[in-house]
Specification:
Layout (H helix, E strand, L loop, with lengths): L8 E14 L2 E13 L4 E9 L2 H14 L2 E2 L11 E5 L2 E7 L6 E2 L2 H10 L4 E7 L3 H14 L3 H7 L4 H5 L3 E2 L5 E2 L3
Parallel strand pairs: 7-8
Antiparallel strand pairs: 1-2, 2-3, 3-4, 5-6, 6-8, 9-10
Keywords: Ribonucleoprotein, Ribosomal protein, RNA-binding, rRNA-binding
Function: With S4 and S12 plays an important role in translational accuracy. Located at the back of the 30S subunit body where it stabilizes the conformation of the head with respect to the body.
Family: Belongs to the universal ribosomal protein uS5 family.
């Protein structure tokens, strides 16, 4: 059973000390932001708090694995342009030509690399807080749809979606206006 489970790589993006002020003083804990992925289309983001750093990381990894999703990737890049939003953070992801690499900063780069996307352009708009930016990138990746998925959703053929003219059995061209 363990052999069938994909090998997920883990990357800790941020560890931060947080405090809750209570009557007796300050309650100190640690928050960990972790991304997991197999670099082949599966990625997840997790955030957790605990009294100790290793516990926070362990909890965040568990949460990231739990909410991991399969991402649509075509030819090493994303199939189409997409915008992800979370809170005041907004990220724009654009497909890029082979050889471009991952042009993204901070938390967005970690999410995109562990998803297995090799060529992409990303621009953070608004807040660049690591937690919100990582989750906004994750939301953007969840919105991606491949050409076959779109064709199936619309009950059309792929050729109809991309605008190619096809001939019917009578020799007439379809797709003309």
């Amino acid at each position: 059973m363990k052999e069938l489970e994909p090998v997920l790589k883990e990357r800790v993006i941020e560890i931060r000390r947080v405090a809750k002020v209570v009557a007796g003083g300050k309650n100190l804990r640690f928050r960990a932001l972790v991304v997991v992925g197999d670099e082949q289309g599966t990625v997840g983001v997790g955030i957790a708090k605990a009294a100790e750093v290793p516990d926070a990381i362990r909890k965040a990894i568990r949460k990231a694995k739990k909410n991991a999703v399969k991402v649509s990737i075509s030819k090493g890049t994303i199939p189409h342009e997409v915008v992800g939003k979370l809170g005041a953070s907004k990220i724009l992801l654009k497909p890029a030509a082979p050889g471009t690499g991952v042009i993204a900063g901070g938390a967005a780069r970690a999410v995109l690399e562990l998803a297995g996307i090799k060529n992409v352009l990303a621009k953070a708009l608004g807040s660049t807080t690591a937690v919100n930016l990582a989750q906004a990138t994750f939301e953007a990746l969840k919105k991606l749809r491949s050409l076959p998925e779109v064709a199936e959703m619309r009950d059309k053929k792929i050729n109809e979606i991309i605008g190619l003219k096809t001939e019917d059995s009578k020799g007439n061209e379809e797709g003309e206006n």
